[in-house]
Amino acid sequence: MGRGGKRFGRGRGGKRGGGGSGERQAYKSFEELRRDNANLRKYYTAQNLVGEDEFPALIEAMRTILPTNFRITGSRQQAMDIREQIVGEFVPHIRETTVDGAEIEAPHPLEWYPNGLGWQFSIPRIALKKSKELSRFHSFLVTETEVGNISRQEAVSMVPPLLLDVQPSHWVLDMCAAPGSKTAQLVEAVEAGAEPGRPPSGLVVANDADYKRACMLVHQMNRLSSPNVVVTNHSGEQFPNIYRPGSPREVVQFDRILCDVPCSGDGTTRKNVRVWETWRPDDAHTLNPVQSKILQRAVHLLKTGGRLVYSTCSLNPVENEAVVAHVLDRFGAALRLVDVSAELPALKRRPGLSTWKVMARDGSIHGSPETIVPETLSRSHYRNRMQLFPLAPARMAELGIERCLRIYPHLQNTGGFFVAVIEKVAPITADEKRRAAREGDAMEEDEDAVLPGDDDDDDNNDDGDDSANVNVDGSANANDDEDDDAAGVKRLATDASDIGADDAEAKRPKVDGKGGSRRTPFQPDCPREGPALRENPFVFLDARASELQGILDYYGVRESMSRRGFLSRIEDGSFRSIYYVAEPVRQLMELAGQRLRVVNTGIRVFNRNCVKDAGCAFRLVGEGVSLLLPHLDEKYVVDVSLGDLQTLLEHVNPLLSALSEGLQERLRAVDPSSSVVVRYDPAAAAAAAGSAEAQQQQQQQPPPPPHARLTATLTIPCWRGHASVSVHVSKTQLSSLIHRVLGRTVDRNGADGTRLDNNGRTEATAATETIGATTTEPEATEPEATEPVQ
Ligand SMILES: C[S@@+](CC[C@H](N)C(=O)[O-])C[C@H]1O[C@@H](n2cnc3c(N)ncnc32)[C@H](O)[C@@H]1O
């Protein structure tokens, strides 16, 4: 599906749901939008999804606005701290809040989500303006989302990664990953239990066919700071074969694969209200062949014994059971549907359908392919019509199609979702391979097909709605969830670039032996289709023969950190940043060579600084600190007390003399103009600060100070200037830290007007007074805005 090939654009341009003019539709509020569609209602009535008695409740739920959901992310300890902050600091106040006499539904954990880390709330936007408590909670969510401690995600969209059962040793492929909310869960599962500084042996390949959307994944991955992720840009159905050396060549297969495929998104009507206007019966017919091909490719790429999850945010059996049943049928005994009824027991779900009907373009409904006349379907849909219907009842029973999960909006106040968990129980035989190729490849994609939502704009649309629930990022937009499921329609990529799965032309990695630096570019010189990747290719750096050695020596990075993971993007023989990938990522990239279109990978660990007298031309970068920390010379890792941490957070470039003597001494052991990492370990600090008795007393005073709730260690990159020291984090990260450590709510710009300069003036006053004047510490360069605090 390349640019010159089929185009799934409606040709109507503009925003999803727009007409043919290419102009944006006039803004309509949630109430104004007609939340009904005669064909949709007729179609789902005919499917008998939930029985006649229950159907009105289902349709009614589909018409109401969705609550907001989020997940607490990150390392276990840190996630627990954030959870406690929500439970202890916000929930009790919100419970007592009323707005215009009405009670507000307090945030509550999703019953079925493990460890109380999935949350839901419904706060009308209008209420925010009327309650200080609600607006404080909102600010907190916005800040923590930006720094990566919270991820906004529709509740049901959290289910597929949980059922994939990812372990830290697994190689995981996310076929249709952007914008990456599920990928984030997969990465967390791979990272779970990893020891500090020791990346796990698993990896996650986050792939998306749409280059622009693959770039959205990069942002998501940066928040996660994992060296075990690669972002790639291929059509899922043509994800390339990667070979291990040997004869015969063995294809790299994955332990786990997620196929969260593009779909009509009619399970998202509560969020993406325009689906009511744009839903058409044959959208599903167009999607079915692409969905099948993606799933079929995933089956080939799955290890025997591996698990695959197929999911959509559509209720339509043509996009769900039809795809699963026909692919299972093609692969015979190699696949089985897994019974996951015992997993996530508190999650309400209904079984997959073993029979359903198909609606033609004219709205006529058919129980079997025999009654459909060619005029009522497009030519390609008509040719593919067998794939849209169920298999014979006996075969459907044999496949155990009821093991699929259907989640309906009225069951537990969510969106609608479909999930199938598939296991590859035996290798695919030659016969099955031939049959799959024959039937799968024979499926045609619709040349003239047009899909809802297939426009050139980003999925986030700006139909603000004051009556809508409040999103974590501060907008009231019904459609702008980071999570695509909530954003509504899943798109078919149109500008994907593919390297054919069996592209014999694929070249091996180039090795530049000259000058000792081994350079292995991992992007095709000339992608066959799609836009050229904007960045230079990644090149692995040889620690012994490059500038890297000097940097590692300066910071005393021990050999316990493998030297094989350092890489960079080289421009004019030089590099600005140094990244690090875990060993499995290096292996994959070496095996793949130019077959893999890598958009991004690795965590930034060092950045070139622009300070002339610095001992090292590179400084430490926040996102790489936790990875480097266990390997760094202790000289650069400075433990601080709560008092010193408070000074560092409350003051802009505090003078060394403002810190405790012990800390001054530690900092003076480091050259001026250098990076250092400040570490605050709450348990160690409490032990150092006093006896168990003192701690107990502290705990008896309700409510505890914010830092008493901190249990995870904080590591913060700092810049040690000549006479001062400054925290090197973005403004949002600073806000998050000030809130977590000092209990003060600060806006996202990092200032609450109370941070002090060395003359005791507040930030705001100092800024007005010092316009045109030099700052106290010119060498303390401003940090970049994307560095997370560990
Ligand atoms: C439902 S969204 C994925 C949502 C994502 N899994 C998440 O949880 O954030 C579907 C994605 O599939 C991508 N896509 C469309 N056609 C594709 C194809 N043929 N192969 C791979 N990805 C495709 C779209 O660009 C879109 O980002």
Automatic annotation (TrEMBL):
<dbReference type="InterPro" id="IPR057286">
    <property type="entry name" value="PUA_NSUN2"/>
</dbReference>
<feature type="domain" description="SAM-dependent MTase RsmB/NOP-type">
    <location>
        <begin position="58"/>
        <end position="425"/>
    </location>
</feature>
<keyword id="KW-0819">tRNA processing</keyword>
<feature type="region of interest" description="Disordered">
    <location>
        <begin position="433"/>
        <end position="533"/>
    </location>
</feature>
<feature type="active site" description="Nucleophile">
    <location>
        <position position="313"/>
    </location>
</feature>
<keyword id="KW-0539">Nucleus</keyword>
<dbReference type="GO" id="GO:0016428">
    <property type="term" value="F:tRNA (cytidine-5-)-methyltransferase activity"/>
</dbReference>
<keyword id="KW-0820">tRNA-binding</keyword>
<comment type="similarity">
    <text>Belongs to the class I-like SAM-binding methyltransferase superfamily. RsmB/NOP family.</text>
</comment>
<dbReference type="InterPro" id="IPR018314">
    <property type="entry name" value="RsmB/NOL1/NOP2-like_CS"/>
</dbReference>
<feature type="compositionally biased region" description="Acidic residues">
    <location>
        <begin position="779"/>
        <end position="790"/>
    </location>
</feature>
<dbReference type="GO" id="GO:0000049">
    <property type="term" value="F:tRNA binding"/>
</dbReference>
<feature type="compositionally biased region" description="Low complexity">
    <location>
        <begin position="688"/>
        <end position="700"/>
    </location>
</feature>
<feature type="compositionally biased region" description="Basic and acidic residues">
    <location>
        <begin position="748"/>
        <end position="760"/>
    </location>
</feature>
<keyword id="KW-0949">S-adenosyl-L-methionine</keyword>
<keyword id="KW-0808">Transferase</keyword>
<dbReference type="InterPro" id="IPR049560">
    <property type="entry name" value="MeTrfase_RsmB-F_NOP2_cat"/>
</dbReference>
<feature type="region of interest" description="Disordered">
    <location>
        <begin position="748"/>
        <end position="790"/>
    </location>
</feature>
<feature type="region of interest" description="Disordered">
    <location>
        <begin position="688"/>
        <end position="710"/>
    </location>
</feature>
<dbReference type="Pfam" id="PF01189">
    <property type="entry name" value="Methyltr_RsmB-F"/>
</dbReference>
<keyword id="KW-0694">RNA-binding</keyword>
<dbReference type="InterPro" id="IPR023267">
    <property type="entry name" value="RCMT"/>
</dbReference>
<feature type="compositionally biased region" description="Low complexity">
    <location>
        <begin position="762"/>
        <end position="778"/>
    </location>
</feature>
<protein>
    <submittedName>
        <fullName>tRNA (Cytosine-5-)-methyltransferase ncl1</fullName>
        <ecNumber>2.1.1.202</ecNumber>
    </submittedName>
</protein>
<feature type="region of interest" description="Disordered">
    <location>
        <begin position="1"/>
        <end position="26"/>
    </location>
</feature>
<dbReference type="Pfam" id="PF25378">
    <property type="entry name" value="PUA_NSUN2"/>
</dbReference>
<feature type="binding site">
    <location>
        <position position="260"/>
    </location>
    <ligand>
        <name>S-adenosyl-L-methionine</name>
    </ligand>
</feature>
<dbReference type="GO" id="GO:0030488">
    <property type="term" value="P:tRNA methylation"/>
</dbReference>
<feature type="compositionally biased region" description="Acidic residues">
    <location>
        <begin position="442"/>
        <end position="466"/>
    </location>
</feature>
<feature type="compositionally biased region" description="Basic residues">
    <location>
        <begin position="1"/>
        <end position="15"/>
    </location>
</feature>
<keyword id="KW-0489">Methyltransferase</keyword>
<feature type="binding site">
    <location>
        <position position="208"/>
    </location>
    <ligand>
        <name>S-adenosyl-L-methionine</name>
    </ligand>
</feature>
<feature type="binding site">
    <location>
        <begin position="176"/>
        <end position="182"/>
    </location>
    <ligand>
        <name>S-adenosyl-L-methionine</name>
    </ligand>
</feature>
<dbReference type="InterPro" id="IPR023270">
    <property type="entry name" value="RCMT_NCL1"/>
</dbReference>
<dbReference type="GO" id="GO:0005634">
    <property type="term" value="C:nucleus"/>
</dbReference>
<dbReference type="GO" id="GO:0005737">
    <property type="term" value="C:cytoplasm"/>
</dbReference>
<dbReference type="InterPro" id="IPR001678">
    <property type="entry name" value="MeTrfase_RsmB-F_NOP2_dom"/>
</dbReference>
<dbReference type="InterPro" id="IPR057285">
    <property type="entry name" value="Pre-PUA_NSUN2"/>
</dbReference>
<feature type="compositionally biased region" description="Basic and acidic residues">
    <location>
        <begin position="504"/>
        <end position="515"/>
    </location>
</feature>
<dbReference type="InterPro" id="IPR029063">
    <property type="entry name" value="SAM-dependent_MTases_sf"/>
</dbReference>
<dbReference type="Pfam" id="PF25376">
    <property type="entry name" value="Pre-PUA_NSUN2"/>
</dbReference>
